[in-house]
Amino acid sequence: MRNMRIPMARRRAMAVVAAVLLAGGVAACGNSDTGGDGGDDGKLVLGFSQVGAESGWRTANTNSIKEAAAEAGIELKFDDAQQKQENQIKAIRNYIQQKVDVIAFSPVVESGWDTVLKEAKDAGIPVILTDRAVDSADKSLYKTFLGSDFVKEGRLSGEWLVENKKDATGDVNIVELQGTTGSAPANDRKKGFAEAIAADPKLKVIASQSGDFTRAGGKQVMEQFLKAHPKIDVLFAHNDDMGLGALEAITAEGKVPGKDITIITIDAVKDGMQALADGKFNFIAECSPLLGPQLMDLAKKVHAGEEVPPRIETEETTFTQEQAKEALPNRKY
Ligand code: GZL
User: Fold this and answer.
1) What is the third-level CATH fold of 150-287?
2) What is the pTM of this model?
3) What are the start and end residues of each CATH 3.40.50.2300 domain in the chain?
4) What is the per-residue pLDDT for 41?
5) Which residue's CA lies nearest to atom 6 of ligand 1?
6) pLDDT tens-digit profile of 269-306?
7) How far is CA 13 from CA 20, 21, 52, 272, in A?
8) Which of 320, 310, 322 is nearest to 286 (CA)?
């Protein structure tokens, strides 16, 4: 092959082009197996799939997440799944395609997540569970769980009832409004409550059905309970919103909530606390929706490759009618 001399200027230009191509290639390669490469402005990009907008708790949780992301300088991609698992799976796949840095979500139900979580893992994108848990056996599919101990919330509710009805004569008939079928809070609250009331054989759950965590669902199912059961002494609702819906059904039957029917709920959102302070509810076990700041802190840590605890539980309490009157003025949600 003829020995071709390449002019010096041309060799310099070719060297510059080669260097640029090599650098670009490394950058692209460097990110191909580590998930996202941050937003255009270098911000951490967090993809969040929310359950829906089914209750006051959910609204407060969404507000906490959006406000905390803005405060933390994190670019939040937010999707409302309208309580459908297929929408959450679609949103998570979109976030993987968009190469976000971190994915977080509150799984509407416990099962059916392994495939999509494996896709996120294979894409090198860390996942954080918030609020609700999944039943995956493979704990490597997510970095941590941030949320409440739902079994404890159910247990505290049952323990209060055992104490409150210890002097009752005859059977105490309980109806239960369960949360969304298959969801961790519904499964665990039911479990904790049942374990606690087993202490007193007088306490009997005579009906238990899902109201899907909504006011409309609580009202509709309570109407059915009232038609089917002439003697109802207690309502245990897995969240305030179903309890508030049930109030309408109870008063429509000419019964006095909080007196004819003892009402126990979980969450302690403002409307629930108002009903408790007004004597319509009798006891609430708190479930804090204010997970935003902790979630943003965790997102930064997992993105930086820092170790985080596998489970982080939120601080919560319980309220009686008197305690609700005192606490209401300072409630944040
Ligand atoms: C509990 C949360 C539940 C609330 C409901 O952490 O998942 O979902 O108790 C909400 O109010 O709808």
Assistant:
1) Rossmann fold (3.40.50)
2) 0.89
3) 45-148+289-315, 150-287
4) 79
5) 131
6) 999 999 999 999 999 999 999 999 999 999 999 999 99
7) 11, 12, 56, 72
8) 320
Tell me which architecture the domain covering 45-148+289-315 has in CATH: 3-Layer(aba) Sandwich (3.40)
Rounded CA separation 117/142 (Å)? 7
Residue with tokens 């179903």: 242
Residue 174 near residue 203 (C-beta atoms within 8 A): yes
From 54, 213, 244, 269, the mutation candidate for ligand 1 (largest count of ligand atoms within 8 A of CB) is 213
Q: What is the pLDDT of residues 112-169, one digit of tens each?
A: 999 999 999 999 999 999 999 999 999 999 999 999 999 999 999 999 999 999 999 9
Tokens of 235: 């309502």
Span from the CA of 284 to the centroid of ligand 1 (angstroms): 13
Contact 203, 173 (CB under 8 A): no
User: Residues in the chain with pLDDT < 50?
Assistant: 1-4, 20-34
Count of CB atoms within 10 A of residue 289's CB?
Answer: 26
